[in-house]
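Let's do one together. I've listed all components of the complex below, 269 residues spread over two lines.
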Amino acid sequence: MTAHKRLRTKTYVLLALMVFAGAIGDVLLSKGVKQIGELHHWTLAGLCAFLFQVFTNGTVWLGVACLIGYFICYTLVLSWADFSYVLPASALVYVLVPLLARAVLNESVTPLRWAGVACIFVGVMFVGLTPPSTTQPRRDSTAEQA
Amino acid sequence: MRTALFVAIVVLSSTFGEIAVTHAMKIIGEVHTFTPRAILGVMGRAFRQGWMWTGFALMTAGFFAMVALLSWEDVSFVIPATAASYTVGALGAKFLLRETVNRARWIGVLMVSIGVALVWAGK
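Okay, and this is what the predicted structure of the assembly comes out as:
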């Protein structure tokens, strides 16, 4: 595999992991907080009780773990790929979240939202036509570990 | 006036925060090994970079500005307005990070901005 193909492959893999982790994390967080229900008592005691329920909910923690995974993938891919390449690609989370929300949370998705999803998809395809990195790499991070 | 100011703070803080994080990761250099130990090592080096903490501080400021904005404006206005972050991000990447943003990438960025605005408008 050429260096160029290797770069594109690991970029796509990291971006895919990032997008799935971000979307699943968002949906799990939403599911977890919905399990707890709406905050009604806006007193200090009510707020503490709500936060206690949030931080002891397993679904919320799974969501947080996924979002940490999203952040790790995001920072790793930025070590070689352009920010102007990764940023639009991260918008694919907005494509996946309505799909997952419909499947997992039974949320309805409006036609306007689907139009937005299509725009994002086309936009990311355009960005995908460009090379992932257009700047000179500073140095190899693995050399630091040697 | 207050709304425009806070939208500007949200867009600029979060975008420049992400640009600072990108700069920190470029200083560390391209990651080639993806074992858990190697990833932990990279994240450790990342969090020893001042630019990483600058990025976090800016993104935190952007988050709180968004929360403040949401206290008086509808989310159906705020979120599409902040979709401008994608365009500002591309401009920041071109002029601050010296990335090449060609026509295809600009078209993609603008389509994504419009798409994000529509996704939130359609909520």
